[in-house]
């Protein structure tokens, strides 16, 4: 999944946070991370877990948006 962050100066902070929660995260663009949730049994569960992680991180970093960017492959899962 691709995660967009509104403040790229905090990208590394988000990446490290996600890694501490068990995700595999790597910068793909200046405002985006590629994220994989290895503990999730399927893509829907991975999305739910990542959304919880992003909500938690945003609560700790008020005013910064971070969300999953939809792709064509993602929309087929909905």
Task: Write up what this structure looks like.
This protein is an alpha+beta fold and 78 residues long. 44% of the residues lie in helices and 24% in strands. It contains three helices and four strands. The protein has a four-stranded antiparallel sheet with strand order 2-3-1-4, covered by helices on one side.
Summary?
With 78 residues, this protein is α+β, with helices and mostly antiparallel strands.
What's the alpha carbon Rg, rounded to whole Å?
12 Å
Number of contiguous helices: 3
Following the backbone from N to C, one meets helices and strands in this order, namely: EHEEHEH
Low-confidence stretches: 74-78
Pick out its properties:
disordered C terminus; 4-stranded antiparallel sheet; 78 residues; 3 helices; alpha+beta
SSE map:
Elements: E1 2-5, H1 11-20, E2 24-29, E3 32-36, H2 43-60, E4 66-69, H3 72-77
Antiparallel strand pairs: 1-3, 1-4, 2-3
């Amino acid at each position: 999944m691709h995660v967009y962050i509104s403040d790229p100066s905090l990208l590394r902070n988000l990446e490290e946070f996600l890694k501490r929660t068990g995700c595999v995260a790597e910068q793909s663009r200046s405002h985006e991370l590629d994220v994989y949730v290895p503990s999730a049994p399927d893509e829907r569960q991975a999305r739910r877990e990542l959304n919880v992680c992003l909500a938690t991180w945003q609560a700790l970093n008020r005013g910064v948006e971070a969300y999953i960017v939809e792709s064509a492959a993602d929309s087929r899962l909905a």
